[in-house]
């Protein structure tokens, strides 16, 4: 991925706009989703099962798949999304992180995902998307999670 002129100019103020893919973006590592604290700024979105705390912006369904199968399907689906790059991968924890970049300005957002087993033998998906720069994202993170969840759900049946 080549970085264009606009991202190079923006990189004078926002350094990560001048880098390609996931280069130099700090990896989040393994996250404790059970104790996730969201910032008060509106530049983030959370997709999680009903009843999750903090309350999700978007509710994810329960999946009739073992957690490792859901994790692998989600990872391959997200890596096929435009302007999306692998950032961090922890298959032993069923967690991964990605960088999604805006098409023109190359602004990076970080998206962390986690798959968790549910009590019925299936699995649940949590996705947390947030901007690195700015206070507001004009709804970009929620729109991304909505599109990504639709792409995942198109490949997988939800539990009846």
Structure write-up:
The protein contains 3 helices and 6 strands; from the N terminus they run αββαββββα. By secondary structure, it is α+β, with helices and mostly antiparallel strands. The protein has a domain at 46-154: 2-Layer Sandwich (TATA-Binding Protein), CATH 3.30.310.80. The protein has a 6-stranded mixed β-sheet, with helices on one face. A hairpin with a 6-residue loop joins strand 4 and strand 5 (108-117). The longest helix is centred in the last third of the chain and has 16 residues, at 140-155. 31% of the residues are buried.
The gist of it:
This protein is α+β, with helices and mostly antiparallel strands and 160 residues long. It contains three helices and six strands; from the N terminus they run αββαββββα.
| First-last Cα distance | 41 Å
Write down the secondary-structure element order.
HEEHEEEEH
Widest beta sheet: strand line-up: 2-1-6-5-4-3
What is the fold-level CATH name, i.e. the topology of the domain at 46-154?
TATA-Binding Protein
Supply the key terms.
single chain; about 160 residues; alpha+beta; TATA-Binding Protein; six-stranded mixed sheet; 3 helices; 6 strands; about 25% strand; globular
What order do the helices and strands come in, and which of them pair?
Layout (H helix, E strand, L loop, with lengths): L4 H6 L33 E5 L9 E2 L7 H13 L4 E7 L4 E7 L6 E10 L5 E9 L8 H16 L5
Parallel strand pairs: 1-2
Antiparallel strand pairs: 1-6, 3-4, 4-5, 5-6
Helix pairs in contact: 2-3
